[in-house]
Amino acid sequence: MGVDDRSGDRSTWEILAEIQEMEGGEKLGVGEIAELIGNRVHGLVLLVLSIPETIPMVGLSAILAAPIFVIGVVLVIKGADPPIPGWVRGRSLPREKVQGAIGKLRPVVQWLDKVLRPRWSGFTRSGRLHGVICILMAILLAIPVPGINVLAAAAVAGVGLGILQRDGLVIAIACVLAMVAAVGFGLVMSGAGSLLMGWFGS
Prior knowledge:
Elements lengths: L11 H9 L6 E3 H5 L6 H10 L10 H18 L7 H4 L2 E3 H10 L1 H10 L5 H4 L2 H16 L5 H18 L2 H34 L1
Antiparallel strand pairs: 1-2
């Protein structure tokens, strides 16, 4: 049986504002976040997992990469709208950093709420495409590279936001960001390799 969609007509910001206002200890549980929405829960979770890393210097890449990777694998295997794995639901994030990042992005999210709408449905239903992006970007997030991590997180956030609002154009943009991040990472690694070769060859 599918999960009921409890998001109703709430905007993305209204949902994120609820997360920002959650009370509790130092940790914010993914399971708590999942309770806010129904069958698009993986979109919300991807968005929340990636938002902190879109703010440079937050430094949560290693924590975020693993659950994003797992969700990506589930999307590749099961397609669109899968349940969140229990392992991911059991994870938690620093409440202060997540809620602080949401607050900093408030103007951007509120602006996006005005322009997002259901469109390009082929992209919104392509769960395996979403999964491939998440897997690749999780790998980049696991390897700290300044600038590249922000692009990778933005790509994951775009996938989550597109799923949440059923906006395929946002997911298409996320694909472009993912490609830019991958190319940028390749260039950085190539440059680093050439530099090391020069050192050892001299």
